[in-house]
Amino acid sequence: MAGKLIVHVLDASDLTPKKASQATFVQVEFQDQRQRTSIKLGDLNPCWNEKLVFQIDDFEAFINQKIDFYVYNDNSQQNRRNSFLGRVRISGFTVPLSENEASVQRYPLDKKGIFPNVRGDIALKLYVGNGDVSDHGSEEKTKKPERVSVQDPIDLIQELEEGLFDHKEISPDDEDKSEKKNEKKKKTVKTSYSVAAEKSEKKSDLKAEAAPPPARVMQMMQYPPMQHPHEYSVIETRPPLAARTGYLGRDKIARTYDLVEQMGFLFVHVVKAKNLPEIDPYVEVKVGNYKALTKHFEKNQNPVWNNKFAFPRERLQSNLIEISVKTKDEIVGKVLFDVSEVPKRVPPDGPLAPHWHRLQGPRGGRVGESELMVAVWMGTQADEAFPESWHSDAHSITQQSLANTRSKVYFSPKLYYLRAHIIAAQDVIPSSNSRVFDTFVRVKLGHQERTTRPSPSKTINPEWKEELMFVASEPFDEYLIISVEESVGPNKDEVLGRFIFPVREIPHRFDESKLPDPRWFPLFKPSAAEEGEEKPKQVRFASRILVGMCIDSSYHVLDEYTPFSSDFQPSSKHLRKPSIGILEVGILGARNLLPMKTNEGKLTDAYCVAKYGNKWVRTRTLLSTLHPRWNEQYTWEVHDPCTVLTIGVFDNCHGNHRDERIGKVRVRLSTLETDRVYTHSYPLLILSPFGLRKHGELHLAIRFRCTAWMNMVMHYGKPLLPKMHYIQPLSRKNILWLRYQAMHVVAMKLSRAEPPLRIEVIEYMLDVDYNTFSLRRSKANFQRILLLLSGISYIYGWFDDICKWKNPITTILVHLLFLILVCYPELILSTIFLYLFIIGLWNYRFRPRTPPHMNARLSQAENVHPDELDEEFDSYPSSRIPDLVQLRYHRLKSVAGKVQTVMGDIAMQGERATSLLSWRDPRATAILVFFSLVWAVVVYVTPIQAVAVVIGLYTLRHPRFRSRMPSVPVNFFKRLPGKSDSLL
């Protein structure tokens, strides 16, 4: 096949300045073709916006070829060679097959060698078009998903499990081989969606072409192919931030907000009016094509609006600001301002004082004594009026929805663990003497409810001695309700007595000291109206219950999962440690977002939510745009470097529906260098039942400042959680239940703010569903274990090569080192630590330069099977048909069988080791005992250095002195008995 490669060169930014005049152009090379753009003079941020067309002779070879982009500075007028400014190399495999699939990408410029100083990036858009390849790509895109039948359960199980346990050691060479293998597969099959081997793919294709399956076999959707994994990487950018380019010649705003780009705004503050005619007044602010309206009043001569409006300075289409007082679309009077004469305000200057302005009539002249109080000034996003202002892009929403588009800062409530020790009760009167007296205690705190086990003593003085824990939050305005109930039938309980205790009166415990002494509380019988009696009987109720209660303030309430938690401080402020640094985050913007409101004829109303510690921030919502620019900077105090910052992007549905997820980014602070500014573009990935999808890129600037170096270093030797988690640890079951309750408390509290932080947003940020079963995640964890063991496997392979003399020089050096260490054993530890020191210095050259991100390959999300995704996102209990649930059960049973076999083999080795001296095998133990006695005598008589030399030289002997059969110790160990034959 043949076609054409379309290369759209848009612009470049932050290029390297040259001493000579700046004259920049881009040269593109593909196969034997070479083209160049026009020359842009005197600009370090040139914009070309030119399209170059190249001929593709063979598409099969194109996906393995490279496209080279070179940025030069033209020096032809000085009769010198062109100056090299950077280059970019793109693989043909990553080029989309149609223009609809293509998007603008920014690529950082690379250097040719070590010495050239290269910086900046370039924006490109590439795709294949005007040929057979383009037609093929468009056909692929418009083709509807085919419905194919599910394979037989056994075949599907084998296909899904094929790569689960038969993994090999992963190395960079293996990854390159796997990428080449995937490229070959992509040549022949472009619409398949399977992670199985080629054999199973062919088998499934044959089944799809076969006759229709029986009625009891379910039909499934075949999903489109995944995007290339290179699109999921983090890209370093160089935006023109004051923190990177310096502060010379910049104002105070650039010094304070140095992680974002300055955005100029025209602010208009309409305060009030006086002495208006008898009208229904409202104010219209007009700047060019932008119009903004205030609230309407009825028959009010002195209305007070106090509304603020913000218009982006770069989009102003007029030099005239017209502020009109209207009634029923008729102008009563207006005030005019010239944009060039508007004052500029620079914080921390105080706010600009509004002034009274006389209204001018539509035909000139004054409108009686009518006046309007207005303030107009130029500012930036650092202005305190910015968060509360109406923005020009919010013209399509109502005043009620306007509050949901503004940036806000939220704080999570302070959470505490409440401990209730239910001990016993006395003189509990049963509701009936005709049945067994089976009692238990139910404890409620808000929405949380827990019950004890039934009392083992079936008397009127039951005992439980059980401890229940809950999550309480300040200001402790809730009540703890404890009731003693009797089980009178299936799912039917009867309350025998209860008491209500305010949480604010429960004592606090700040250390591991003894719990407060339990107290007896009277049990009050429920009212006769609640029991359904017509006339309550006057009976003295003397039952009581013994309960010990306290609020544990020395724990940290886990509302996030520990591996990526953002805070480990204890609940009590008296036990918290001082901060060690400051985290500064600049949320610059997002690019290439997917349209989320296509049904409504809109694009995306995107906003960001960032969470670190107990502080949540929410940016303003930018309406109907796929490339929002927020440029908002926020700051957090850091108490522990081993914490994680979480930033999520959402689509604002303005209360009509649930806010849709666009993507999430996590950044671990311990991976950041101190005082370095990280500016990167992070991919926004979403895993849905339809597969992994990239929803765009989020552009962030992050800096971590350390204010207490010694305290930060000392943190690496301290436990992660407060000491109470280790002195009196909570059970695993308790931790999971309490974490879910803490998440629910935080979500309920923040959803009651104004504007609310919606529950679905908090659940996504806190990963509420992280504990649900996922076969994909299980495979990912299994792969992580293999990667961990690959290091041990590499060391074993290296030692085996030494023993087999594959490299004689290395083997001889190892012999010499071994003999030296045997003769001078005091050098062993010094040699080990010196080796670690040298390896650490050597690896410093190859240290990671980008923060870690959501890794699609590590998550096993690139080529996950559709049925696995459908199972992962299925509800609990399952809502699928019984045949599909049965198929998944068989698959899980097969996987669990393999895990069971592996665990049995591990247990077998441990049992053989424990049976060495247990005389379970009398002959084997006798041989070991006799052999141990002989070796004790030999080692006592012979110097230890001689024994070590003999053992070492025997282990490192030449292959011609080795046998292919297993050694005697291995054979002896494998013959030892285990307990597998004792299992049923």
What report would you give on this structure?
The structure is a single chain. The protein has 984 residues and is α+β, with helices and mostly antiparallel strands. 25% of the residues lie in helices and 30% in strands. It is built from 21 helices and 39 strands. Strands 2, 3, 4, 6 and 7 form a five-stranded antiparallel sheet that branches. The chain has a five-stranded antiparallel sheet with strand order 12-38-39-32-35, with no helix packed on it. Strands 19-20-13-16-21 form a five-stranded mixed sheet, with no helix packed on it. The longest helix is centred in the C-terminal third of the chain and has 33 residues, at 882-914. The radius of gyration is 36 Å and the shape is globular. The two termini are 63 Å apart.
Features:
984 residues, alpha+beta, five-stranded antiparallel beta sheet, 25% helix
